[in-house]
Write a structure and sequence with these properties.
There is one protein chain. The protein is α/β, with parallel strands linked by helices and 437 residues long. It folds into three domains: 200 residues, Rossmann fold (3-Layer(aba) Sandwich), CATH 3.40.50; 77 residues, Rossmann fold (3-Layer(aba) Sandwich), CATH 3.40.50; 135 residues, NAD(P)-binding Rossmann-like Domain (Rossmann fold, 3-Layer(aba) Sandwich), CATH 3.40.50. Helices cover 45% and strands 14% of the residues. The protein is built from 18 helices and 14 strands. It has a six-stranded parallel beta sheet, with helices on both faces. A six-stranded parallel beta sheet has the order 11-10-9-12-13-14. Strands 7-8 form a two-stranded parallel ribbon. Helix 15 links the parallel strand 10 and strand 11. Helix 11 runs antiparallel to helix 12. It is elongated.
């Protein structure tokens, strides 16, 4: 089966490579000539475990191709996936500029039936706008060519995207015709053979499912962070509370871990977009507004604890930061707590030295020389007045505390992900502060 995927960002590149891995002939399209040149050489511009090897293998097998021109492959494929970016506008709503441009290109140049599938995260009703654009382009050409649109939202977790694609909880596909349903069934048949669920819905429901799912997960995180902050006030232990709540079969334990706020490319953007979609429809998402507010405040919690510890006197203090990416197994710093924390530290006059196993280059791109870059975890804490742990990378879990205490000017640890044992650090001579205890 021949398909094209427009957009070689996180979703497009992972999806295209995994479809090729399942045996499809895939052409990935992007207007970024430099990125396409790199991909043709087998160099992947994002960090995702296992992806680069899979890209190279499928290129060698002749199943994965890269181009900057959709038109050249448009009429040799049965399905075109749109996986371009939908960045938030100033009001938080999704910007559909790139999605609609793909639709225009398809409408201007298609010569036979095409199924255009939106894989980008888009507001409810986007498929209708895509259809209108294609129809308008066909009418301008004086052509009557059959086409379909569909919605196939992604549910990939950064750091586990390849596994999520090849072994999904479910695949959601919104369609309007039997022809589109049959094409998508053929494409996902390798997953159906292993009893993975492909759920077919109407298009608007598929578009809503993506936003609703991410917003529910964000809600669980913010709820647990609210509970954690209350636990500190009343003397409860949030870890015990989480265990007691999570063992309820009606609730479950996933996404109930307290911390210093969620970030990334999906949760913050999707919560904002769903709030704006509701406003445009005359509804108010009161719960999600609270979720967003709680999360923004939570990103300041570790800084606030540090600031209180030093009675607001952070001027001239040297602060070590472990963890820059918004979560482990990725170099993605979009909406990361580290960015908020570092900004607050710098404004307070502190010096900041950072370390992350993967995201150092991304941090240099974003922050330049405003912070100091460490070579490893121990270099980061040398002469530090406090250590802030913001991302729970595995290599941070069992450090040599004796060596760290010796290296630090003042032994204080602020744990934003609750991965350390308070008794162990207290016995080692550290002041220790975490979330919800």
């Amino acid at each position: 089966m021949n398909i094209a995927i427009v957009g070689t960002g996180y979703v497009g590149l992972v999806s295209g490579t995994c479809f090729a891995e399942m045996g499809a002939d895939v052409t990935c399209v992007d207007t970024d000539h430099e990125k396409i040149a790199s991909l043709r050489e087998g160099r992947v511009p994002i960090y995702e475990p296992g992806l680069e090897d899979m890209v190279r293998r499928n290129m060698q097998m002749g199943r994965l191709h890269f181009t900057t021109d959709l038109v050249t492959c448009l009429n040799s494929v049965e399905v075109v996936f749109c996986a371009v970016g939908t960045p938030p506008d100033e009001d938080g709503s999704a910007d559909l500029t790139y999605v609609l441009e793909v639709a225009r290109t398809v409408g201007r140049h298609m010569t036979g039936y095409v199924l255009l599938v939106t894989k980008s995260t888009v507001p409810v009703g986007t498929a209708d706008r895509v259809k209108e654009v294609i129809r308008a382009e066909l009418e301008a050409r004086g052509e009557k060519i059959e086409f379909d649109v569909a919605s196939n939202p992604e549910f990939l977790k950064e750091g586990a995207a390849v596994k999520d694609f090849l072994s999904p909880d479910r695949v959601v596909v919104g369609v309007e015709s039997d022809r589109a349903k049959n094409l998508m069934s053929r494409l996902y048949r390798p997953l159906l053979l292993n009893n993975f669920r492909v759920i077919f819905t109407d298009i608007r429901s598929a578009e809503m499912i993506k936003y609703a799912a991410n917003s529910m997960l964000a809600t669980r995180i913010s709820f647990m962070n609210d509970i954690a902050n209350l636990c500190e006030k009343v003397g409860a232990d949030v870890n015990m509370v989480r265990l007691g709540v999570g063992t309820d079969s009606r609730i479950g334990s996933k996404f109930l871990y307290p911390g210093c706020g969620y970030g990334g490319s999906c949760f913050p953007k999707d919560v904002k977009a769903l709030i704006r979609t509701a406003e445009k429809s005359g509804c108010e998402m009161k719960v999600l507004k609270a979720v967003e507010e709680v999360n923004e405040l939570q990103k300041r919690v570790i800084f606030n604890k540090l600031n209180t510890y030093y009675d607001g006197a952070l001027q001239g203090k040297k602060i070590a930061v472990w963890g820059l990416s918004f979560k482990p197994q990725t170099d993605d710093m979009r909406e990361a707590t580290s960015l908020v924390t570092i900004d607050l530290l710098l404004k307070a006059g502190a010096g900041v030295k950072v370390y992350d196993p993967i995201a150092m280059d991304e941090c240099r791109r974003r922050l330049g020389d405003t912070v100091e870059y460490a070579s490893d975890v121990y270099d980061a804490v040398s002469g530090a007045d406090a250590l802030l742990m913001l991302t729970e990378w595995k290599e941070f879990r069992m450090p040599d505390w004796a060596a760290i205490k010796k290296a630090m000017r003042h032994p204080a640890v602020f744990d934003g992900r609750n991965i350390y044992d308070k008794n162990e650090l207290s016995e080692a001579g550290f002041y220790y502060s975490c979330i919800g205890k």
